[in-house]
Design brief:
CATH class of the largest domain in chain A: Alpha Beta
Helix content of chain A: 25-40%
Order of helices and strands of chain A: EHEHEHEHHHEHEHHEEEEHEEHEHEHH
Shape of chain A: globular
CATH topology of chain B: Rossmann fold
Oligomer: heterodimer
CATH class of chain B: Alpha Beta
Distance between the termini of chain A: 41 Å
Distance between the termini of chain B: 48 Å
Number of helices of chain B: 12
Radius of gyration of chain B: 20 Å
Amino acid sequence: MKTTYRTAVHDAIRDALRDDPRVVLMGEDVGRYGGTYAASKGLLAEFGPERVRDTPLSELGFVGIGIGAALNGLRPIVEVMTVNFSLLALDQIVNTAAALRHMSGGQFSVPIVIRMATGAGRQLAAQHSHSLEPWYAHIPGIKVVAPATVEDAYGMLAPALADPDPVVIFEHVQLYNTSTDIDALTPTDISRAAVRRNGTDVTIIAYGGCLSKALDAADELSLAGIDCEVVDLRVLRPLDNDTILESVSKTHRAVVVDEAWRSGSLAAEITARVMEGAFYDLDAPVARVCSNEVPIPYAKHLEEAALPQTVKIVAAVKGLFGDRQ
Amino acid sequence: MTDTKLAHELLSDMVRVRRMEEKCAELYSAAKIRGFLHLYVGEEAVAAGSLRALADDDAVVATYREHAHALLRGIPMASIMAEMFGKQEGCSRGRGGSMHLFDASRRFYGGNAIVAGGLPLAVGIALADARLQQKRVTACYFGDGAVAEGAFHESLNMAALWNLPVLFCCENNLYAMGTALERAQSQTDLTVKAASYRVPTLAVDGMDVEACHTAAQQGVDHVRDTGGPFFIEFRTYRFRAHSMFDPELYRDKAEVEQWRERDPIRLFSEQCRHDGTLTDADLRDIENSADAEIEAAVAFAEAGTWEAAEDLERDVLTPVDRRAAVGEATPEPAR
């Protein structure tokens, strides 16, 4: 049966609300409206306004309230409409949620889950399209995950809620309508990267909305005789070094794909880690495919030009093989 | 005041805070305490009067000027002092310092050094209490400076909109660091702002400990009875500098002297003497016992130990063996 990413997110939240009375969902338009991306449709009717709580447009306030509620026995899922809006709540996430356990000498854990949409591709321009995941991945004290598949869209929520520390989940806006044939959705994990395609010649490392582009590039490259391994990061903090280094040590080449801007990106961090951990296994410098360093523009052709695309990944991979072309 | 026992307790609370704070200033000069140090001298009546209105299982969220609140909620002075020394015997294991005193066992949710950062937290703690049907109050302390932050307005709105049991305690000492209230606010009556969110309010003389206690009791009763929020503006004054780095260029010495005339400890002890509830011997006992407590606390902090630097990265995330403990005491909410 075809299941969409949107349905998987919805069902994960519904099952969490069913399984644990401490779970509450809160955020802008999660209730009556059914969620900006329709991920919480029908949940208000099933669970009532105490557990599915529409908030005012007060990101700083309601994320902070979620943190307080988490400290005092609830397991809140707080939805922030987009990563751009989450900047209004960044103080509470960074200065409180991430720091509280450490600055209290280990007395207070903050079991909150914060979900938000991220990424470009819908012509929403510069205030609704950015990929700021690397900023979050910079912060000790939180975990950051990016489900790129329908399985993970469902499967990552339960372990995130079971985690005693703050978990931030990034759902790429381009993924909600994607679908897969699945019999049953089950919890996955939030600790490891996953090899989505085995290969021997080069490792393409991607996450979130770029995974499908990486897989498409791998298909195309196989026609050119280049056998790509594709690693889906899944967890952006803490990074799964072992899976990345194991793959690169095997293939001897790496291309990192990141929809965020190149400067100070996760792609930069991963490249550095490959250099530190697999330098002598490399047959070529690590390549990166990131967004151009502009605020994401509205016009379709410009937006497409700004983002990592399959064709750019193909070119970057081919660039590592020099005379084999 | 006719209740002798309560009068002695309130006075003793204020004296303990005052003497502890003066000792902290001395220890700062001696380089035993470092970082930022924000003293509560002059404002003692607010914490002393209001905290005594709370029940043991109520929660407190405080600011970076929170030594008094921590002490009067029952965190031992020794563990507060050790924290300021940076020792692992401190109430935050030396990870927090003066601005981040915590005690989970006393539901003391910290020392928050982001102005207004504690308000959403307090509303969330209250939301959980409401959902879990715990008839508890969350007292949230913040200064006049916090009123300028968006978090203040968002928090009061949601606390009122959702009828949550928060006692908002605004410690208006007239200065946000060095910026006078009238230089920062178009409306300087802060109760008007709270009232605009339909939160019931009171303004009280923050130099009068008895008035602070009565107002807080009224606020706590309201919160417990209605399950909804209440706002108290305590009009007080800080006698000392904002922090140890503050040369106080923004206010006249004469203004400080004028407020010192209304020193809450002197006012209250004079009143109690006049009422016959306090003798010179009583006062001496209170002072001596505070001094002894401080001496023991400093000795404890001095004797404390430094955490091994190898443990630097502990407590960033919850260790696997402690995970089950998170939220284990939570009562089952209604479905």
